[in-house]
Predict the 3D structure of the following.
Amino acid sequence: MSVVAAGLAADFVEAAADPEVPAADLGVLAQELDAEVAAHPEAAQVVLPAIAPLLVEGEGAPLYITAVLVGGMVERGASPEPAAPLLGRVQVWLHDLAEGRSDPTSWINLDETWRAAVAVIGAWPEARAGMQDSLPDALAAARAHAGAAWLARLLAAPQERRLEVEVPARGATLAGRVTGVADLLQLAILVNHALGVALDPEVVACARGEGPQVLPRGVQLPWALGVPGEGEPPEHTSLPELFGLDELIRVVATPDGAPRQRPVGRAFATLRASLTLG
């Protein structure tokens, strides 16, 4: 463990507690701390618990800068559990926005911290399950707040939902389960893989929520996915937009005679996805 990182974390917490320390100076300390943890990832197990109290007690710049630090560490693989206090506050802010309260504090706080919350919730299945009660608030607030919209999309992503893939060319309908898939393109990559298409392992890993969030190359998919009775929607349409929150997701896989290059990436860096077909 980096002794330097532990010292920098202590300096950051002390500075964050001092109202006389300018936000710019606190930001410099945060950059130094983040760089040290990036160079010594094992240090996150000490640094995150050390700075996590600021997610409860912090206001203004100390809260916002801490949230950025925490989100970055979690995206790089640190345990999200020390960041649990942030999620309780996010739930309160979402509820305030859903209720239409005029106090701008909740709006600003959510605007500065939602990216960190997305990283934490995506990396922590138990937290995503525990925050399902906040989905109605996130959906209501999404009409006016971009961060709430991303949180709603994350919370609405399927969790062990039933999947049916009709494959007319094979005269078959395959049943399975899907978890953590955010949009139709991500689903198409995983369905093509499940149907036996030999895809680049890095492409499949990206669709499963592993490795880089975006790859610098595209992929051709010989099976195109459509929705029964609706054809082929835009590839980045979210699954909740297409199928609502019902239990069953039904798609049709048809041969694509001229498969085009599709971008490879996923909406959520830390959200793991899985798909099985029988």
User: Anything to note?
Assistant: The chain has two domains: 3-156, 161-277. Residues 3-156 form one domain. The longest strand covers residues 172-179. Residues 104-123 form the longest helix (20 residues).
